[in-house]
Please model this.
Amino acid sequence: MNGDLLRLVEVIRREKSIDAEIVFEGIELALVSAAKKHFGDAEEVAITIDRETGQMQMTVDGEQLDPAGFGRIAAQTAKQVIIQKIREAERASLMENYADQVGTIITGQVTRIEHGSCVINLSRGEGFLPKSEQIPGETLHVGDRLRAIIIDVRESGANVKIVLSRTHPDLISRLFELEVPEVADRIVVIEAVAREPGRRTKVAVSSTDSRVDAVGACVGIRGSRIKNIVAEVANEKVDIARYNESPQVFISEALKPAQVKEVLLNRDINRATVLAGEDQLSLAIGKKGQNVRLAARLAGWNIDIMTPAEYDQQRATALEQLSGLEAVGADLATELVTAGYISLADVAEVNTEILARAAGVEIDRAQQIMEQVAALVVELEARAAEEKVLQEAQAEAEAEAKAKAEAEAEAETETETESEPEETGGGTDTKAEVAEIEADTETEKQNAAENTSAENTVLKAADGDEPSEVQP
Model:
């Protein structure tokens, strides 16, 4: 009996990863509950289990008794208490184990799919992969093995809910650590990750060893390392950019594969204006703005991309608008535009302290500039709204006129069609014309026959009794 108890405790400890002392305490508590149920009038019950031998000792109101004398109901109570205690200990063990693993990558197998969400079998416990944390376009099936990152561990009722994600940017970082030894050894450092799950990811890397090429290490020989990562995230495209402490250089790297001409910074509003040629503009922006959007998130700058001609035009417009303000003037407008404020919105975006420092003026004048710029912005917006209304009205009038002209043309065409005779079908006028033509033809035939008969008569009269060669 004592040996069986020790073996049971050892099995529970290994399978549930619960400390043996917790199991012993649970059994002792269960036996105390059973004893109180068995000895209803007992005031003091104490049960101890020797951790080495498994020997149990029970004392009831100071009298030592044998625990084996419990009844069936008392034994059932002990069983329930033991199960409850083990579950509580297992839940606490799971919380302690996985709470420390938040942000780490795990491998599991899909066991169930419920309303689009997946239940993943882990080494201990089950993970929950919500639909919102799955890669768009990826279809998972029961039995699939996958990698995911733990993003949350919390108690949910009597269970522990381990929430997983395959869309989190840190998943890319953890995959690089698994596939690229230099990243795991911190020789190559992942500086930043910008991701649109299922579509594209940009990763900025640097090297702590000048002899190691960060980009080359991440790509691998013939792309072997990056291919493994791409395959793990459902063929999501992964771009690797070389990190640089200079924002201009780093932004240019982040916008690759596009080649840009120049990067202009306005640190006051954290905006980078990137100049690109006509042939590189669409490539720099990317499909639906994806490339510039990811580059902005990777570099941490707001990025505007335009051609040099567009940039010059925007500067000229800003210079003209600012010069027309009483509190600004031509000279100060030139300074502001040179400092990177190439639109009224740029000026309105900063506070008076930043504007005063950028323009080199007093706070009071900076406040006046802000007020006048705000008033001009409202005025221009009102003009734009009026022009939009006029354009919409003009477009509506043109559409109505076009529809009216088409309707009139269609009506005229129908009238002409009704007035023309039908080619077939035998209308009254057509039948009369055909009958008249047939009558004229018959008359001509009769006249030709009469002329032939008269000619024969004349020949007979001229030849006398000789028969004519021409037969009537």
About this structure: The domain at 244-306 is CATH 3.30.300.20 (GMP Synthetase; Chain A, domain 3). Residues 33 and 397 are 89 Å apart (CA to CA). The chain has five domains: 2-96, 101-165, 170-238, 244-306, 310-388. The chain is about 55% helix and 20% strand.
